[in-house]
Every structure is written in C-alpha cells, then in structure tokens.
TrEMBL record:
Main location: membrane
TM region(s), chain numbering: 12-32, 38-61, 73-89, 95-116, 176-194, 226-249, 261-286, 326-348
Gene Ontology MF terms: branched-chain amino acid transmembrane transporter activity
InterPro entries registered for this protein in UniProt: ABC_transp_permease, LivM-like
Protein name: Branched-chain amino acid ABC transporter permease
A cellular-component GO term for this protein: plasma membrane
Subcellular location: Cell membrane
Amino acid sequence: MRQINALITNTRGASPVSIILGVVILAGLFLFPKAVESPYALHIMILFFLSTIMGESWNIVGGYAGQYSVGHAAYFGAGAYTTMILMQFKEIPPWYGMIAGIIVALVVSLIIGSICFRLRGPYFVLASIAVAEIMRLCAMNLKNLTNGAEGILATDIPPFTLGETVITDFLSKVPFYYIGLVIAILTIAVTYLVQHSKLGYYFQAIREDQDAAHSLGINLSIYKNIALAISAAFTSLAGSFYAIYIGFIDPPTVLALDISVQIVLICIIGGIGTIWGPVVGSLVLVPLSEALRSNLIAQGIFKIGLASEESGFGILLKEHLAHAHALIYGILVVVVILFMPDGVLGYVKKLTKKKAM
C-alpha cells in the first residue's frame, strides 16, 4: 500500500541542464545526414532508431505495467505484413498501410489481452509466445494472403507527395533516417507522458502489486489492455517502418521468436521501466549485432593477438561467430543480471551517486 501511494504521489521534472543537453543532441541528430554522407553510417543510425522504437514500445507494457510479453513479434509482424500486402497487392501507399497496420495490431492486442491477461507470471509469458507462434504459422500457411514462405518483396516505393509536390522519393537512406528519427522521438515522448501521468502511475501500481492495486479500485483488465494497446501500436509502427526500409519480409524475419526476445533484451540491458533504458540498450545491442554480422569482433581478436587466424579456434571464430547472436546475447544478459540488475542505465546512476557521496 505504501509503495503504491508513493508511486502515485511521486513527480519528477527535467532539470535545465538535461533540457539543454537534449536539445543539443536532438539538433545533432537532425543535422547528422548533412555532416555524414556515408550510407553505412545512416544504415546503422536507422537500425538504432528502429531498435529504440521497439524497446520503448515494449517498455510500456513490460517495464511500467509489469506484463512481460515475449510475443511482441506478433504486433511487429502485423504492421509489416499489413503495410506490405496493401502496398504490393492493393497499390496503397505505405503511409496509409502504417495506419492500417496500427489498427490491425490494436485489434490483435485487444483479442490477446482479453484472453491472456487472465494469466499471470510465467503463464502469461508462455501464452504470449504461443500467440506470436500462431501468427507466424498463419503467415506461413496463408499463401494467398501473405505469399507464404516466399515472403513479399517490395518492387517499388511510391514517392511521398502533397498534392503535386514530391516531398521525397525514397531513393536514398536519408528519408528513412528522418522517418526513423521522428518515430523514435514520438515513442520516447509518449513514454515520458505515460510515466508522468495518472495512467502511468496506475501501470506502475499494477507492476508493483496487482492485488493491492485492485483493492484501491484500479481495474486490472482495463489498464493492462490499455498498456498492451499502446505498446502494440508502436511495435506495429516499427514493423511497418522495417518492412518499408528493408523492402522484403517473410515469417522468419518479422514473426520469429528471435524478434520478441531481442525486443525484451533491449530493455533488460538498458534498464526496464525507464525512459532512456531502451535507448541505452539500443546503443549496446545495435553495434554489437553489426559487429557480429560483419565479423568485426573476430578480426579484432586476431589483431590484438588473442588468437591466430590459422588456428582451430581462429577458424571457429571466423566461421561461426557471425552466427552466434543467441549465444552472445545470452552471455550478455547473464552478465547484466548478475552485475547490473537494473540495467546499464541503473548501474551508471549508482556509480554517479557513489562518486557524488
């Protein structure tokens, strides 16, 4: 009871220094494509924005409401498939497909929430995984709608126009950079508003003690479903953006369990239930994922002399380390849980407090 009352009466404002720092960072992000023309650098930033969007989205239901869904690939895939189906088969521009994807994800979330929120703890986690797997199997077998295992390839993205004026033609990565940046800012802003609103305090009360929250008159079913709906909407938006940017989707890339696990890892590593935790988690996971994919880690090990390329261990690194995402992520999660249970962000805060004392 005391914990819940403390949550409801707690208010936190941003300091002038943090506001100024945020404005400077924001200005730097908007000017980044002007200063850096490398398509690879823009690609990394786009992946970072995408990761941030997914992490912030999950954080609403998992971090604040305490409902640890491991099936968010369902909403990610709903947005991706809705957008691509409408664009490729119905010739509907993807920005309208994004809106349709959000609607589909909201309907799916309401159906899932009305059923699965009757469960708690590990049972809810297992149910969320099952739902995502059902959607993956549906996408695999409904070939007339989703093209099955062959996936959907975007042949052309229509230019974005206002009247007869062409705003952008999507021929470079710059438009995708700004779209990703705007959506990421929007998700962070929504997270901030949720955290500092009565709705957010209700979510946190449910997270801390569901029975105590219910005894105070908080309708658990309604507020859990609201949290899931907000989370699903933005996860769907991330899926739509991914589909448009990559230009190809199939069940293993947008509906696999790996997607759901990666979304959760972003928050666990950065810090669950915080505004900037998913951003920090993305700063860790995106470079790590890219380093694994391009075998930069193996090359670094060879350069500093820890292993030889001709040795058995060196050959193993070159051939398998690029595909060892699950292993590396698992080790990283174990390290974080053991030494940084509040995530990287929480660990940094503890260090700064110790230095201040």
